[in-house]
Design goal:
The strands form three sheets. The chain has a seven-stranded parallel β-sheet, sandwiched between helices. It has a six-stranded parallel β-sheet with strand order 5-4-3-1-2-15, with helices on both faces. The two termini are about 25 Å apart. The protein folds into two domains: about 140 residues, Rossmann fold; about 200 residues, Rossmann fold, CATH 3.40.50.180. It is built from twelve helices and 15 strands.
Length: about 375
């Protein structure tokens, strides 16, 4: 079965569900009952809130079944964290109706939980009935979430492929945008990231060092001849264009002299166009705030070859020059506000990576 996102519930839709409870018995019991429910797949389990958030980012569930009283980070803490996500999963809280748990459960609704299930007294005989109620509310929560996310196409329906490379271009206002976007990519992000930021050369290394403090990824200036690897961010530096070429299965950095009339060196267009040639449809391009039009033509080349392209919107751009030029050319597959871009990259990559490992059925994950 294939899990569809952003569409109506149908027979080919699997609801990816994450179980979060500090009781191993409760998790096993729920998994056992839900395993017999058609259209519901348990894709992970977590024993506390911190583990739950890690798994949400890793397996991108549609629904989280959440206990409230847990160590490390409780259920309300999980809900508060999820409220900051761009496309959070729906949450069904399983809690006791006895005070003070009932009061916490009501607060959970205020924090964004979809619905509640009472587990005040659950004997072995009552377990099946409780599981049935949880399953019913999982389906309702998933349907509600899909209606809410109907504006967003699923990776499958939009043809987005797991990337070999992500390229980002920015100018005025770019450092602040990069702090946020790169800070939201996880350590297991599946592709290397190459960046051109228009900035005086003397400021590049301090920028790299500052960004390195905000992301779990390795950050450095790109060096000609080196192979790109997942888990790293490379910045174009110096007075030459940074480009990417393919050698066998590897993506190699090269530096080339720019034509005399090139307005910005390193050039965003040069990086983007080389990435499109090297990776075809398996490159993602992101064009951020900045003056002029550098990057617009290169982003269009990425889109022409089937890659996924994102442009920062006007409202959150410090200067809506480069993004506006890209939109005018038809180079933008998506136009997003800055706070959405990093989360959207991370969640889409996690979703595609999970499907790449188990294209027909994703096995449950535990932390």
């Amino acid at each position: 079965m294939v899990r569809a996102r952003g569409g109506a519930v149908n027979d080919s839709t699997t609801i990816a569900t994450l179980l979060v409870d500090d009781s191993p018995f409760a998790r096993r019991a729920l998994r056992r009952v839900l395993s017999s429910e058609p259209g519901i797949e348990v894709v992970g389990e977590a024993g506390d809130g911190a583990q739950a958030l890690e798994l949400v980012r890793k397996v991108a569930p549609d629904v989280v079944v959440l206990d409230l009283d847990m160590p490390v980070l409780d259920g309300l803490g999980v809900l508060e964290a999820l409220s900051r996500e761009i496309d959070p999963p729906a949450v069904v809280v399983v809690s006791s109706a006895a005070r003070p748990d009932a009061e916490l459960a009501i607060r959970a609704l205020e924090y964004g939980a979809f619905d509640l299930v009472d587990k005040t007294t659950v004997s072995a005989m009552e377990l099946h009935a409780l599981g049935g109620e949880v399953a019913s509310k999982i389906r309702a929560a998933a349907a509600f979430r899909r209606r809410a996310l109907g504006r967003a196409a699923s990776p499958e329906s939009s043809g987005i492929l797991l990337p070999e490379l992500v390229v980002i271009g920015a100018s005025t206002g770019g450092p602040q945008a990069l702090f946020q976007i790169l800070g939201e990519l996880p350590s297991d992000f599946p592709a290397p990231v190459a960046v051109v930021q228009h900035i005086p050369t003397s400021f590049l290394q301090p920028l790299i060092e500052r960004i390195a403090e905000k992301t779990p990824l390795s950050v450095r200036e790109g060096v000609a001849g080196e192979a790109l690897r997942p888990g790293e961010v490379v910045f174009a530096g110096g007075k030459k264009n940074l480009e990417v070429v393919r050698k066998g299965d590897s993506l190699i950095l090269v530096q080339r002299d720019a034509p005399p009339d090139t307005p910005h060196v390193p050039s965003i267009d040069a990086l983007f166009a080389s990435a499109a040639r090297a990776c075809e449809a398996r490159v993602w391009g992101v064009l951020l705030t900045g003056m002029g039009r550098d990057g617009a033509e290169g982003l269009l080349e990425i889109r022409r070859r089937g890659g996924w392209t994102i442009v920062q919107d006007e409202t959150t751009s410090a200067v809506y020059g480069m993004p506006k030029a890209a939109v005018a050319l038809g180079a933008a597959a998506e136009i997003l506000p800055l706070p959405a871009i990093g989360k959207h990259l991370a969640r889409t990559a996690a979703d595609l990576a999970r499907k790449a490992v188990h294209p027909d059925r994703t096995k449950g994950a535990t932390t």
